[in-house]
């Protein structure tokens, strides 16, 4: 596979503090998530996914805690984990109907690749856990940007599996870990329309005495 990103430089290599780029500015200004029901084949290959995750991990990480990790679902593992989700839903939701179970079983089949970004903070007594959790969120967003820049669409979702204790067990999460997001990657079947954005005048203030 031809690599889409340059390799990381050796540790201690002097790095540019800025990299002005019109293309990067356009990517940031026009970035749009794909609709979760409109992500299909083709998706990134396993080698491409590994490269995307390497780029996604280039985020602010105070004291180099690496407070996140990845669980990748590709091919048949998406359906296999979907069966786990359906089983868990049936056990925890007494009024679950067959359509609910079918929907749960198909959640990870909505895209060729699903990456669970796991927030995995280390409480070292110095680095705030909240700061580490924010770093995990930055990984999610960086993964979307890396995917978009490489020609793949993406969506950052959570939904009920991100907050279910039994799903956490099925994923092998520790007591201090949780899902930061399920990242759906593939090719968008439609061009998603622009959505409403924040009214910046309502959310920006400048501090003064």
* CATH topology description: NADH Oxidase
Proportion of helical residues = 25-40%
**Overall mean confidence score, pLDDT:** 96
CATH architecture: 3-Layer(aba) Sandwich
Structural class: alpha+beta
Topology as a string of helices (H) and strands (E): HEHEHHEHEHEH
Main CATH class? Alpha Beta
Q: Please give the domain count.
A: 1
Q: Roughly how many Å is the radius of gyration?
A: 19 Å
Topology, number of strands: 5
Q: Give me the CATH superfamily.
A: NADH Oxidase
Biggest β-sheet strands, sense, barrel: 5 strands, antiparallel
- How far apart are the first and last residues' alpha carbons, in Å? 57 Å
Continuous helix count: 7
Task: List unreliable stretches of 5+ residues.
Answer: none
The percentage of residues in β strands lies in 15-25%
Structural shape: globular
């Amino acid at each position: 596979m031809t690599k889409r990103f340059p390799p990381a430089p050796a540790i201690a290599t002097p790095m540019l503090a800025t990299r002005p780029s019109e293309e990067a500015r356009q990517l940031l200004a026009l970035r749009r998530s794909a609709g979760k029901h409109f992500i299909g084949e083709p998706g990134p290959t396993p080698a491409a996914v590994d490269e995307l995750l390497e780029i996604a991990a280039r985020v602010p990480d105070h004291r180099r805690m690496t407070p996140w990790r990845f669980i990748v679902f590709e091919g048949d593992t998406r359906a296999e984990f979907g069966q786990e989700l359906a089983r868990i839903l049936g056990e925890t939701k007494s009024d679950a109907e067959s359509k609910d179970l079918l929907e749960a079983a198909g959640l990870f089949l909505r895209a060729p690749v699903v990456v669970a970004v796991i927030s995995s903070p280390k409480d070292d007594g110095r680095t705030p856990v909240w700061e580490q959790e924010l770093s995990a969120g930055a990984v999610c967003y960086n993964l979307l940007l890396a995917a978009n820049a490489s020609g793949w669409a993406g969506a950052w979702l959570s939904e009920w599996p991100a907050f279910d204790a039994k799903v956490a067990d099925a994923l092998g999460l520790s007591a201090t870990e949780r899902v930061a997001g399920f990242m759906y990657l593939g090719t968008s079947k439609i061009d998603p329309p622009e959505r409403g954005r924040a009214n910046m005048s309502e959310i920006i203030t400048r501090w003064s005495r």
